[in-house]
Amino acid sequence: MINGIKGVRIRRAVAAVVTTGxxxxxxxxxxAPAQAVTKPSITAKGGFVMNNGTGRTLFTKAADxxxxxxxxxxxxxxxVVLSQPNLNLxxxxxxxxxxxxxxxxxxxxxxxxxxxxxxxxxQLLYGLxxxxxxxxAYALADKFGTGSTRAARVTSFIGxxxxxxxxxxxxxxxxxxxxxxxxxxxxxxxxxxxxxxxxAMKNSTFRxxxxxxxxxxxxxxxxxxxxxxxxxxxxxxxxxxSGAIGVKTGSGxxxxxxxxxxxxxxxxxxxxxxxxxxxxxxxTADAKKLLNYxxxx
Length: 297
Fold this sequence. Notes:
alpha+beta, two-stranded antiparallel sheet, 9 strands, globular, cell shape, D-alanyl-D-alanine carboxypeptidase, signal, hydrolase
């Protein structure tokens, strides 16, 4: 009888081992639970990532701390332009000397627009978002602001940017420029910028522009001839990160290195922001880490 009981115990033990093995094998075939994915460490002062489809927050680091935004400000510039009633993207804007003078005075990033050229609103959006042209930003603000003077129109346009931020419920965002060259009170947060970008990405023209790696645009010159502008996107993720679809770089003495980013894989779009990364290389690395994490959780 003792031998029989021992035999039963041994058989039960073997069965338990086999069962446990089957569970382990099955577990290996399923996706790891979200809590098993290690939260990444980034050099950026501020970071935020969300699922663009559901709005679910996936990552935060000082996500509500107000920071300088650099040229990521231009996302809102584009959003305001694209939200204008009865917008005709083929309307031509004549490039003024004031725009090029502004670039020189501020040593600003440029689309190299030439005075007298007639450039469409659509083309200005490419010049704004790809080479991060502050001259293109100035042209758009001058075109879509209201007022009898250029200064009044620019002030009006910046007011529209702030109104748009308020309409999105963003309490930690304020603009005092159309391009990110702030005058002391141009700031946002990683969370707010991500929400601005998410809203802008609902517009098909915006989506088309920000995912473009480079473009060649034909414009009319002052004399009635034509020339081509060739612009390359400053976003390093396009073409280097699978599924990347935007959005915008930014940099500056205060802003350091910023990037608002988005990518889509298997029907899931992850969108986020890093603010005040320590270098161009670290900005890219930070964004890739957060995208990888966003797709994993």
